[in-house]
Amino acid sequence: MKYHVHVYTVVRVKFADVEADSPQEAIDKAEESVNFHDLLKRDVSNYNRGAPVVVEHVEWAEEHTEDFLVDEAGDTAFKNSQMWHRNPDGTLTPKDEITRIGDD
Fold first, then answer.
1. What is the 3-state secondary structure (H, E, C) of 45-76?
2. DSSP state of 85
3. What is the pLDDT of residue 22?
4. In the predicted model, is pLDDT for residue 62 greater than 90?
5. Residue 101 and which of 12, 75, 77, 87 are 20 to 30 A apart at CA?
6. Alpha-carbon distance 8 to 95, whole Å?
């Protein structure tokens, strides 16, 4: 028996050096700057690592999380990084805490 398996996943897309007056403006600029569906339109033949399972098609799922991570450029320790959440009314709210790899 063979199956077609569709794996739905969330992909993190980093936008570097977004010039903005606030984290909220940076989020808006990042979201508006790219067509996320076009971002994944590429040759998927390179994704197959010699495994018997072959990636045939890749596309974005319609689901989009409403959470964002904003890092300050130059903050190499990521001490000023902040998570944000877009509310149903479109406003952005900072999330309380970020769990960082390596933090004690």
1. HHHCCCCCCCCCCCCCCCCCCCEEEECCCCCC
2. E
3. 93
4. no
5. 87
6. 25
